[in-house]
Specification:
With about 375 residues, this protein is of the alpha/beta class. It comes from Buddleja alternifolia.
Length: about 375
């Protein structure tokens, strides 16, 4: 047994402690780096640290951020995301969104992830290819500024030694399943993978050699999917998740894994780590009681109550939503995104390297 403690800021200043006892826990032992860790992240809302809010001017309000940041920071979560915990592990600042205009700090990298992003269609803000174009512009301008004597910019060696993290694909699968049959979704997966291949090659061609690639999670276990899709009793697995959506996610992940294997052979002197976050996240559902979760398929913030607390007409952040008590142990925050508590467990499993191929620790890139 162990206890995980979260420091939650009080509105009046100071901190209060909220804790959950876990049967299994992996402590967040800070990693050591020989040089300044620089990370460039590409993805969707699973790793968006405020990019969507900045790009659209949308003002996220309570209850987002209530468990940590308070007020909200544009993260679709009650607190920190997996990428935030990974940055904490390296003792580096949280990643600043690319479009931040007020006092941005890009000395430790940039977050290009934007909520709602997918690999396709191309040339649509902020699809993966647009994020790569933004990265290339940022790289060129940074190197130009460094040559002119500017300080506190990412230099050419930083770009070469940086870690390039990629976590995208969930929205591609969601969009496909909303309009296509299972067979048609499977047929489209290679086109999603092709976009990720192009993105990784674009980074490699300008000197990037360290890649950290997350696969996609169990789509069929999200309360949003469970609460909106017309189903039959035979559509569910023994844990209450929709089998076809999970099988689609696994098919995507198999292709992504194969891509990583292919690129390890063709990208000389590169390191490509494939992280099986699907297994980590599905384990939270299967063994929810062991982690202290009482409602593994129910959203903390939503409407409608059990079994999923998800109503497409009254979603979290809409007028009339209901909210679980602070400190409650939920996996899903709003039906689509995970809670800070769930993210912390996912991050701890990632940091163990037990779900990574090859099994590198997260700090490999700043020590090699």
């Amino acid at each position: 047994m162990c206890q995980v403690f979260f420091l939650i800021p009080k509105m009046s200043g100071g901190f209060s402690l909220a804790f959950l006892s876990l049967i299994l826990c992996l402590p967040f032992v800070a990693s050591q780096c020989k040089r300044n860790p620089v990370i460039f992240n590409f993805g969707d809302s699973n790793s968006d640290t405020g990019g969507y809010a900045i790009a659209t001017g949308f003002n996220f309000e309570y209850p987002d951020g209530r468990a940590f940041f308070n007020p909200p920071t544009g993260r679709l979560c009650d607190g920190r995301l997996v990428i935030d915990f990974l940055c904490e592990n390296l003792k580096t600042n949280y990643l600043t969104p690319y479009l931040e205009s007020l006092e941005p700090d890009f000395t430790n990298g940039v977050n290009f992830a934007i909520s709602g992003s997918a690999t396709l269609p191309r040339y649509v803000p902020f699809s993966l290819d647009i994020q790569i174009l933004e990265f290339r512009r940022f790289r060129n301008r940074s190197i130009e500024f460094q040559s002119k004597g500017f300080k506190n910019v990412v230099g050419e060696e930083d770009f070469k030694n940086a870690l390039y993290t990629i976590d995208i694909g969930q929205n591609d699968l969601t969009g496909a399943f909303n309009s296509l049959s299972y067979a048609e979704v499977i047929e489209k997966i290679p086109s999603f993978i092709s976009e990720i291949r192009d993105a990784m090659w674009a980074i490699y061609l300008v000197g990037g050699t360290n890649f950290w690639v997350h696969n996609t999670g169990p789509l069929g276990c999200l309360p949003e999917k469970l609460g909106t899709r017309k189903t039959n009793a035979t559509d569910y697995d023994k844990n209450g998740c929709l089998m076809s959506l999970n099988e689609g996610a696994k098919a995507f992940n198999a292709k992504l894994d194969a891509l990583c294997q292919e690129l390890r052979l063709s990208m000389k002197n590169s390191t490509i780590v494939y992280v099986d976050t699907y297994s980590i996240k599905y384990d939270l559902i299967v063994n929810s009681a062991s982690y202290g979760f009482k409602n593994p398929l129910m959203a903390c913030c939503g409407h409608g109550g059990a079994p999923y607390n998800f109503d497409p007409k009254i979603k979290c952040r809409d007028n009339g939503y209901n909210l679980c008590e602070i400190g409650s142990s939920y996996i899903s925050w709003d039906g689509v995104h995970y809670t800070q508590l769930a993210n912390s467990i996912v991050a701890s499993k990632i940091l163990s390297a037990n779900h990574s191929t090859p099994p590198h620790k997260f700090n490999f890139f700043c020590n090699s």
